[in-house]
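Batch job 17 of 40 flagged for manual review because the log was empty.
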Amino acid sequence: MGECCGCGKTLDVAAMQARHRRVLWIVLLINLATFLMMVGASWYSHSSALLSGALDNLGDAATYLLSLLVVGAGVAAKARVALFKGVLILAAAVAVAVQIGWRLAHPQVPLFESMGLAALLNLAANGFCLWLLTPYRNDDVNLASAWECARNDIFEGISVVLAAGLVALFGTGWPDLLVAVALLVVFLRSALRVLRIAMAELRASRVASG
């Protein structure tokens, strides 16, 4: 009887890990596709906000790939990967800051039509990713940090759609830059949150092993 119970628990864990891998593969591929779409749209429309979103999608794709690599690993390994994810989000924030500086030095009014279309497509994709990850957000630190990235993407998507509308309304590029600055703040806060959670998990794992 005890052996059967043990087998049941093993099967449950294996099934959960299989679900984690499946959902992470899906959101990884979606983010790679939206990254390519957003980069092209950003170049065509001269939008800092779109490029910020594209960099965010690329960082998310890397995050989901790292998450895939540690599915089934121990708490310490997952915490180390979460720590690296925080660093990746921080790197995206730096890239956004550089892009904002470039646009301030070379001002242009974005093409709101292509900007808005790309933003809407990206928002739809981000919403689907969040929906896929939400049931697993409390399973472990690995999926929690992946869900954190997806939740940030919703804010980013809504903000870029709003920026496109304001660019169309006012005929100026300041809403695009304003949204890029807002995304920079979101990235910084998210990076600090993920880093804080990862450090707490690392400390807990050291105490448990010690």
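Reviewer: the log was empty due to a logging misconfiguration, but the result itself is present. Helices lie at 2-45, 48-69, 75-105, 112-133, 141-170, 174-209. Unflagging and moving on to job 18.
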